[in-house]
Amino acid sequence: MPIFSYLAIPRNGAKENLCAELAALEYCRAMPADNHDVVILVTDTPDQTTEEELHETLTKLQSLQSLSLAFGYGGYGGDGGDGLR
What we know:
four-stranded antiparallel beta sheet; 25% helix; 2 helices; alpha+beta; 34% strand; 4 strands
């Protein structure tokens, strides 16, 4: 269950369009900032393959200028832990 959070920067004047595109995608939750031209995006996918497919879809959105990873948790330690050593 990979969980990632991103700062999504829309193209000039495309913040509302970006929010609509993100809201239409499964496994995504978008929260636009009130006072800046940025959108916080949280993704929660069932597996790594789905996460990779979603990331590919995200990078192809026409209203998206840049996508910066802020946090990521893959949950694949194999030992019941967090996978970090």
